[in-house]
Design a protein that fits this description.
This protein is mainly α. It is 79% helix and 0% strand. The radius of gyration is 23 Å and the shape is globular. The protein starts with 6 loop residues before the first helix and ends with a helix.
């Protein structure tokens, strides 16, 4: 991977090399069959359908309209603009299921508006970068879907388990936004008193009730799609793959009716983008499962797991070491690759130590969220830099650091109070 080879082919080359050198000749003849059988999992069918739904919503102006509606209703709260962006990121992440798409959709409208109203560049960038990470935590999440496949746990329970920590993070981000805003507001007042220069932050805004209602009308269909998908899934009316298909079709219908995206010329970028991303993910999944098969056949994953267990680490020392390992991998790899490459090694020791793998999946997801915004290669940092090129990258990084601390606090809270993760799945799915 350091040579620049795509992740899927890096995994495939290593797996094929070890098969040729150390496994029976017959195993090489079954590569195509194994690759196909790994992808012929009906749960994996949900991946391109969720991506299609996210692409449809991401290509429309839904993010801008969602942000505008929340701002109109929350602008009277100190730091209400930052709170609005945080909540908008959470809602859009739940609709699109993609962190970069959330950053781009909400940030393209939110960052210019925050800066026009006096917010510092780092503060504005940090809100959007951190809020965008919620795309892999709040359901439906492709990252969680892959973890459910790798760990062989219930996808429905895993989706539900992500809601509590997701709401916790939104609340923490919103609270920090209020406190940081008050600090910047006091500084702006001091500057106005000393120099007579009034920041845009000191200006007041007003919206009529009819304007607020009008904005909600544009957002309601997308929130309805989100609620409908969750209801259909947890009421048992459809499988996850069928639910993803329903969500994709409804998203296409909504953007066609509301934004006029129904002509082939406007739909083709959505379709081609979905095909490109789906193909990339499915290739990584197929190759990683082939890689895991080779590791299992050669007893590599079992030997590694046995070695980790033989170290005699305490339960929490083991968890800390594994999460630190995930943080380091986050410097170089996206969440999908981290899950598929590490699952055969880290899950057996965790299972032997008595950890709930659904709980761990959520905690691991929060840690991988941190990887999306920490340097040197946090993906969301570069998405923000792309949509706000006038903000220096160093300022973006410093703006995200407080949110990294908040994510770490959320992980600690989930460790001390696992009910944050486990209560909702236990209450809904008996």
């Amino acid at each position: 991977m350091f040579s620049g080879m795509p992740i899927a082919f890096a995994l495939g080359v290593v797996a094929l090399t070890f098969m040729v050198l150390f496994m029976p000749r017959a195993s090489v003849d079954t590569i195509a069959q194994n690759f196909y059988e790994e992808l012929a999992n009906v749960i994996i069918l949900a991946i391109p359908l969720f991506i299609l739904k996210g692409a449809a919503i991401g290509r429309s102006n839904a993010g801008r309209d969602l942000y505008s509606a929340l701002h109109a209703w929350l602008h009277r709260i100190p730091g209400g603009l930052g709170v609005a962006n945080t909540i908008a990121c959470g809602l859009f992440a739940a609709m699109a299921g993609s962190s970069p798409a959330t950053c781009s959709a909400i940030g393209s409208a939110g960052i210019p508006e925050m800066r026009a109203r006096g917010y510092s560049g780092g503060f504005a960038a940090g809100i959007i970068a951190a809020g965008g990470t919620l795309g892999i935590l709040l359901p439906p999440s492709v990252t969680m879907l892959l973890y459910a496949v790798a760990a062989e746990v219930s996808l429905g329970k895993l989706f539900l388990a992500g809601i509590g920590p997701g709401l916790l993070l939104i609340s923490m981000f919103a609270l920090y936004s209020v406190l940081r805003y008050r600090k910047e507001f006091r500084m702006a007042q001091q500057v106005a008193t000393d120099t007579g220069v009034h920041s845009a932050m000191l200006k007041e805004e007003h919206y009529t009730f009819s304007q607020k209602i009008g904005m909600i009308v544009w957002v309601a269909p997308f929130v309805t799609i989100l609620a409908g998908v969750m209801i259909v899934l947890y009421a048992g009316w459809a499988t996850p793959s069928e639910t993803a298909g329903v969500g994709a079709v409804l998203a296409l219908l909504v953007i066609g009716v509301m934004y006029g995206i129904w002509r082939p010329s406007k739909l083709m970028p959505i379709v081609t983008g979905t095909l490109r991303e789906s193909t990339m993910l499915l290739m990584i999944i197929g190759m990683s499962l082939l890689y895991a098969y080779v590791m299992s056949y050669l007893q590599i994953s079992q030997a590694t797991a046995s070695w980790v267990i033989s170290l005699g680490l305490s339960k929490w020392a083991l968890l800390s070491a594994i999460l630190l390992f995930v943080v380091v991998l986050g410097f170089f790899l996206p969440p999908v690759s981290i899950i598929l490459m590490t699952a055969p090694i880290i899950l057996p020791p965790l299972r032997a130590a008595g950890f709930d793998l659904i709980w761990f999946g959520v905690v691991m997801t929060i840690v991988m969220e941190m990887g999306l915004i920490h340097p040197p290669v946090g993906l969301n940092l570069f998405v923000i830099k792309n949509i706000a090129p006038d903000i220096p990258l160093s300022e973006i990084i410093w703006g995200t650091l407080p949110f990294l601390v908040l994510m770490f606090v959320a992980v600690v809270l989930c460790c001390f109070f696992p009910e944050i993760v486990t209560w909702l799945p236990a209450a809904v799915i008996k």
